[in-house]
Amino acid sequence: MTYTNTLESVSAEGSVYYLFGATGDLARRKLFPALFSLYKEGKLSENFAVVGLARRPRTNEQFRADLYESIVEFCRYKADDAELWNRFAEHFVYMSLDINDVEGFKELSKLSEQLDAKFDIPGNRLFYLALAPSLFGPVSFNLRDGGLLESKGWHRVVIEKPFGYDLPSAQKLNEQINQVFKEEEIYRIDHYLGKEMVQNIQVIRFANAFFEPLWNNNHIANVQITLSETVGVEDRGGYYDKSGALRDMGQNHMLQMLTMIAMEPPSRLHGEDIRDEKVKVLRSLRNYKSSDEVRENVVRGQYSEGSHHGKDLPGYRQEDSVGEDSTTETYFAAKVFVDNFRWAGVPFYIRTGKRLPVKTTEIVIEFKSMPQNVLFAQRHDLAPNLLVIRVNPLEGIYIKVNAKTPGENNSVQPVAMEFCQSCQVGLNTPEAYERLIHDAVRGDSTYFTRWDEVSQAWAFVDRIAQAWREDKGDLKQYPAGSWGPDAANQMLGEDGFHWWPVNGQEEDKVIWVSNSGK
Ligand code: BG6
């Protein structure tokens, strides 16, 4: 049986794609490779054109050379078929554009008509804004005033995160964009929603008789979501120092994964029905009422000097474009409650940070312990059952159960049964951006964030940020290469839990039954 959403069968219609920020890092690392993979897999029709837009001058040839380099370096497919490559590259043109100058947009409009004629495109327009949020409004106005929305096909705008800095700025941004585009034309990207295993959460939950009946506060003790990174802020200090982990990862990726775990089954596998259920979760998040509550439930940290695999690493305050006395958090861990019927009383622990020991995203569902029945009367240390969803870089799931140790009476030991998706030879998982671009082109906004989701998430995060502004002393340092402030361990310890090791760190303590050949 195939699992399809309602638009699965709709193929990409011909369209002009406008890439604002075409000389930037995102285009090079993610967007160009995604377009090539889609093309190679036949998911883009031949009726398309891509216009690269940025301020710096570039010829079409130079632009195509950049494109080629990016694909060689970052794409999961090789560009080794010269005929295919030339056919693909022919669809790309470049135009230097000052985004504050409407005259340039009028030129762009004329160019678009030529591209429509050349590639037999029915006037469809997809604008991809890989730009700073402050430019979303001005670009939208100039798209309208430059005549780009007058073509007879559909018009869609894809917007990169961050969508604002807090609720008021996001509202302002949204109001500006809404003057030009309708909500159903706006595709707000959260690339975590394009990840295979995040989308798989729905299938694991709703297609398995032994998960869904247990998916509630009667059987689940807690949920842990870890998104750890080994990198520091790299060359993004200027952006990151104003943002911090809470805004960079919490408001979007972390809360989105939480909603996928906590949402009710939608009535249909239809984008709006799924998003309706997700927003209900965000509305049910318990808001911290005071700074004291924030301090009790949220730990924030910043990395100091440390080391990783023998390599010395600088502290956050020594990074480029970061203030010497910066109080920006590079780590946070929070205890979150979803106050609804299903989840009342179940803590969701979420944590994310830079310069942690491993790069991984994992979701652990810890089930409540068995009552100590007669068989286990002597054992008080039975490990709870776990369902672990591995999002990144390993992809797959495993469940941890207890089984008898062969040959020994009454001896119990944990066994993990694993499905490792990323270990499967030939299962070349599409990148998140491939899925999302393909969805946007087909008009499927299921895995994009709707305004009510974005605003609810900001409202939740703003309360924490507000408390932190009032309570600067609360920032804890952690050495680069460590698992963050100890306070995050204490937070779970006080509830009788602990963070489960992620990324296979305790695999030797468990017997594995795995398709990866462990
Ligand atoms: C981005 C953040 O949204 O996600 C980055 O801005 C972060 O700070 C990145 O490094 C992580 O994404 P992934 O897919 O590599 O886990």
UniProtKB/TrEMBL annotation:
Does the keyword section mention Transmembrane helix? no
**What residues bind NADP(+), as annotated?**
G21, A22, T23, G24, D25, L26, A27, R28, R55, D98, I99, K161
Where, by residue number, is the active site?
H253 (proton acceptor)
Q: Which Gene Ontology terms describe the biological processes this protein takes part in?
A: glucose metabolic process; pentose-phosphate shunt, oxidative branch
One Gene Ontology cellular component annotation? cytosol
Q: Which UniProt keywords apply?
A: Carbohydrate metabolism, Glucose metabolism, NADP, Oxidoreductase
| PROSITE patterns, per database record | G6P_DEHYDROGENASE
Q: Top-level EC class, please?
A: oxidoreductase
Region annotation (Disordered) maps to 302-322
Q: Which SUPFAM superfamilies match?
A: Glyceraldehyde-3-phosphate dehydrogenase-like, C-terminal domain, NAD(P)-binding Rossmann-fold domains
Q: State the InterPro entries in the record.
A: G6P_DH, G6P_DH_AS, G6P_DH_C, G6P_DH_NAD-bd, NAD(P)-bd_dom_sf
Q: In which pathway does it act?
A: Carbohydrate degradation; pentose phosphate pathway; D-ribulose 5-phosphate from D-glucose 6-phosphate (oxidative stage): step 1/3
Q: Which residues form the Glucose-6-phosphate dehydrogenase C-terminal domain?
A: 203-500
> Which portions of the chain have biased composition (kind: Basic and acidic residues)?
306-320
- The residue range of the signal peptide is none
The UniProt annotation places substrate binding at H191, K195, E229, D248, K354, K359
The Glucose-6-phosphate dehydrogenase NAD-binding domain is annotated at 19-200
Task: Quote the function comment for this protein.
Answer: Catalyzes the oxidation of glucose 6-phosphate to 6-phosphogluconolactone.
- This chain belongs to which protein, by name? Glucose-6-phosphate 1-dehydrogenase
